[in-house]
Write a structure and sequence with these properties.
Number of strands of chain A: 17
Strand content of chain A: 25-35%
Largest sheet of chain A: 9 strands, mixed
Largest interface: A-D, 42 and 42 residues
CATH class of the largest domain in chain A: Alpha Beta
Strand order of the largest sheet of chain A: 16-15-14-13-7-12-11-8-17
Oligomer: homotetramer
Structural class of chain A: alpha/beta
Radius of gyration of chain A: 21 Å
């Protein structure tokens, strides 16, 4: 008999809708898909949002109280798509009720919360995974393979950045993402969590961090009262120097004020034997340089090879096949597919809450470093 | 009461599955979407394919005889995803039964068939649209807006190409796409139809054509009998010189032997006032050059602007919003959404069968030109 | 004793000055350079131009009559930098006086002239070379090596173009390059000669040609009488279909109306085993695709490698060394160095007048094709 | 009467030869050039080097003792192309004898030396300029114009890097550039000096710095005794966080271990109104983003414009004209031309020794920061 995944989703804003779309597409893209996915319930911020969710996606049930949702017996998987400050309560409650959980990044508001979450996840044995879906970009999956094969040799240095420009307009109003009490952090939490996870995915654990943060636009209008200004206390830009356990050094930047760019996640790594470059605005390609390749005159034809990663890695896409270009929604589908597969096959998830905690630690260390103006060892957090 | 679209799909191979996925995603991406889409029936090549379609997408009904499908009263929209040689019969039959039709390119095996199809479409008044979905790439939609605003000025010349490399391996077996009696033509039909449609979409009608075609790999193994070779009679590469009614001249190439590239549809247009460049392998960008812009020293800062078209055109995407990168499946969703919207709102479709006929005419003229080694006026076809 | 090259230059406009600069730089870049180069004399259009040449470059002697120059005993090398319509007379005269010759492209006004020139060159045994200096771009030199090593396998097709935009302004006045009686041809002569030579250099001889030419801007103001218009009879744009002796097919375009681009010479070649791409606006790189490389999962990591050709080919530059970027003047220096080395070492030159004749033949065939609207076999010229 | 520049060059290695070539080319590229440049004397490391200099470039005089050269009455301009540890002595001596000086970067071994040099330059009133020739890349000159016009608005952040890969091979032997006592510093001195100067040129003075330095390859073979290893004490990689006086923040990296790249100097700047990007490996282009440009639907066509800077800025090149691509030697010619023009016209030079001192200060502050692990205010140096 086919396993049934009975899904409840907490939060039906932009990202909750993305998760919903991903669920619906999984059986269409991955074939045969050995489970039935039922979109059972949703917790939304308002009745209007409830109606929309039920209409768009066929959720059978809606509530504005997440407790009601996560306690239901007819749901076994919870997607946490609520603002950061609600993660802890939702996750704890859902775990108490034995639900498997797929959670948006960052895991929590701080390391203390994140540790409790991880601890309870271990105790309950529930499946858990973070929405750090850039790990599922084929180019990144190929990069991971290469790193594991030793392609880079000894890693010297890296440059990582996740750059947005959406907040350059000082009239853009206040929101929970700009409010420290609801978001927990600024660009570092929002964007930095993704790129920190990728650096760790590719290069292993962080040893220590030195950070500089800056809030350039220090107040913004309230959303419904444009004449009143609210103070912004989170970082517009965070810049980190990082030392890795493997000896590599590098920089990492998270910026909401990178005028001119749109959704630019970049990573470059230089090792003794090879180098790798990736830019999310060109998501179908991975650039690799092989220092061992000495074919050609005068010590080899030096140059980066721009691999069409498209949908070829880790294995060719079942659908629509390896040769067509992909974009942002595809990574969400692939990431969620990975999670539900681990549920179905009862195998370990990755990136899981513990990976979320590792990111949380380095973010907390970074804020501490910026405040204390000193290097912070991650193990001291 | 909400309009109901009751869909029957003819052909559940790769492309039929893509249409199915597009239908399922329309209400998720476009919100509110004022109709109910029901995936009612499917005509597949085998019982296995039938089972798959019903399981994956919930089709209620399956047959291996398209007549059975298109005659059903509980279906009002037919998607034609069958091999080219079947289009004519399917379309004629479906139109007789008053179905609205969304049809894969090319419209038919030849101009004679295509004309009959167009004629019957006019007589029956059914809604009809071609799957020429690259018109719905945001970059192309922005290009179209610019052209209509007169951005280019007087158009001098263009370079257009649709380049694949999938057939460079001579061991790749024979298939209906390589069989003239089933495909009708080769690279020109398969790839050329898309790029011809785009050139016409942006620059208007063709005046005349001169073509050179070549079949480099003249025989290929049979699919199930690799020791037997079948003759290939269709073009691997077609190269066209074109004269447009607006006076512009240009080249257009369709190739299945473009070693090194993957799915590369390119178009470049030079006009007296501006220029445009696009490459489907970088689908999120449109490059534009404005010859009127004289800001900067010495007659202006010359250069192409690389516009982030992403999901911003013709208007920002409702979901997932304008800023995320997109890929190949997205154009199918947008194209099919456009079709069903025209059904719902009872407005004229585009590109419709007549547009399909226009492409068919220039393809037939091209083959004639290659054979006769002379310029062929499109109006002579 | 070191050989002495005693140079006389015919024409001291832009290109004559470029040749002069190249001579002066040769001993500085190539070290040790086993000859003395003396800039002896110049033939310029006016006394002002004479003064400038003597002042800038130290020419000892100047005349406005080329005969006087080429007959001098104290000169053994002639650079022909005069307008096209003068080449024949200058070259014949110079050869009669036994001078070695370095000549700007195109070789002559037509094939008849070119044949006489080649004939006399053979009879006199003088060293002769064409200024087809793009052969000396390191990226092209690496491409040539690869082709000779069989990197491409069986060549299927190519796309070649040399695109300028300098004539898009209809107010740009008439000049000898636009005057058929002085230039001999239009964009095809001026730009096409370069790219035709490169295609032939890389892919061998042409079999036949079909051409379309167009003059979009049919009259232009006289240089000194802007109210008077002169008729333009040469091509603004020429587009050629070509069949090569090796079976490859392709297109070649020469355009002076390619709005938006600047000095864009492009070549792409697809073969059964590999592909090559080059663009003169990024002259420090050659892109190559190796179809044999199956390393990586699923049949190999497909992708073009962007080789830093810089100054590494055919061997690392003596100065300024292989790693620094280069531009347009560098190819002139390299090309002229090649010529003078052949003089010094008494070895065969390449590209020589005969190569110039080959280009002349295909250009003449192209014009004939455009007029007669039929394929023209090069051997029929 | 035309001014005479009588040049003596100290050091005839690679860079001394480059300066020599630049001198010879100035009158050829800049026309009319109102001075006579005489290459009078050279100080080289050996008699062999002397011979080469005299033969290649026609120097009349050669010595291995710089004092002899700089004291000569028949020389009025000195180019300092010696290793870093000799700069101080050479410059002081040359200034005592009233010579105008063009000096390779970095100015000196440390700030103390640099201050004395600047002080004596002021007292003597000699003309002095640094070889920070990337200021003379047309793209950078255009960037400077844009910055001065306020194009960027309030500057938020920047990313700057100068990346080489030449030292990734651990067998590359020791040299003066790797020896702290002769080079003064490592990648930061060698590469960082260039990019620090560019950041300061475009964004103004530095406020403070935090640095991390690393020596990955800690010993290297001696040049002539490959079995003996010498300790490397200078940085392979230096990474700086910087705070500018204008409030901007950013990172700057100098690396000799950036596997895969060649000579990659990059700078990106984000301001409230615009953004700028440059990469020296594509030296003919400047990318600019104008946040004010709201033409096009939905708030404007967002995107970077890739300006063909080629040879168009600050004004079109007299020769070879604005449209041809340029490379590394061209910046040297332009930079040295700028210097000699200031001598001829008796106008202030820039970048001069004082600009060199500014760079020296931030480099010294960076090393101090790395050692003390604290932010260092530049004014504290």
């Amino acid at each position: 008999m086919m396993k049934e995944l009975r899904v409840g989703i907490v939060g039906y804003g932009f990202i909750g809708r993305m998760h919903t779309i991903a669920y619906i597409n999984i059986p269409l893209y991955y074939d045969p898909f050995p489970a039935d996915i039922k979109l059972v319930g949703v917790c939304a911020a308002s009745q209007a949002s409830c109606s929309r969710a039920m209409h768009q996606a066929g959720y059978e049930f809606c509530t504005t109280d997440y407790r009601e949702l996560v306690r239901r017996d007819d749901i076994n998987v919870i997607n946490c798509c609520a603002p950061n400050y609600l993660h802890y309560d939702i996750l704890i409650e859902a775990m108490k009720y034995g639900k498997d959980i797929y959670c948006e990044k960052p895991l929590a508001m701080n390391v203390a919360e994140a540790r409790e979450i991880v601890q309870l996840a271990k105790e309950t044995g529930i499946k858990n995974q973070m929405t750090l879906m850039y790990r599922f970009v084929p180019a990144i999956m190929r990069a991971k393979q290469l790193v594991e094969e030793g392609f880079l040799g000894r890693v010297f240095s890296f440059r990582a950045a996740y750059l947005h420009s959406g907040y350059t307009d000082p009239k853009r109003p206040m929101s929970w993402r700009l409010d420290k009490s609801q978001g927990g952090g600024g660009a570092l939490y929002d964007l930095g969590s993704h790129i920190l996870d990728l650096v760790r995915y590719l290069l292993g654990d962080f040893e220590s961090v030195y950070a500089m943060t800056e809030t350039f636009i220090k107040e913004r209008p309230l959303p419904n009262e444009p004449d009143k200004m609210a103070k912004v206390e989170v970082d517009d830009i965070s810049i980190l120097m990082l030392r890795m356990k493997n000896g590599a050094i590098g920089t990492l930047e998270a910026s909401r004020l990178a005028t001119g760019v749109n959704d630019e996640l970049r990573i470059e790594i230089h090792g003794s034997e090879g180098a790798i470059r990736f830019n999310l605005m060109d998501p179908n390609w991975l650039e690799v340089y092989d220092n061992r390749d000495k074919s050609g005159p005068i010590g080899g034809d030096r140059g980066f090879k721009k691999i069409e990663t498209i949908q070829r890695y880790p294995k060719p896409a079942a659908f629509p096949g390896p040769k067509f270009s992909i974009g942002w929604t595809r990574y969400h589908i692939a990431s969620l597919y990975d999670f539900v597969t681990h549920i179905i096959e009862d195998t370990p998830t990755s990136p899981n809450f513990e990976d979320g905690l590792r990111v949380q630690e380095v973010m907390e260390a970074a804020y501490k470093s910026a405040e204390e103006q000193s290097w912070i060892s991650i193990s001291s957090i």
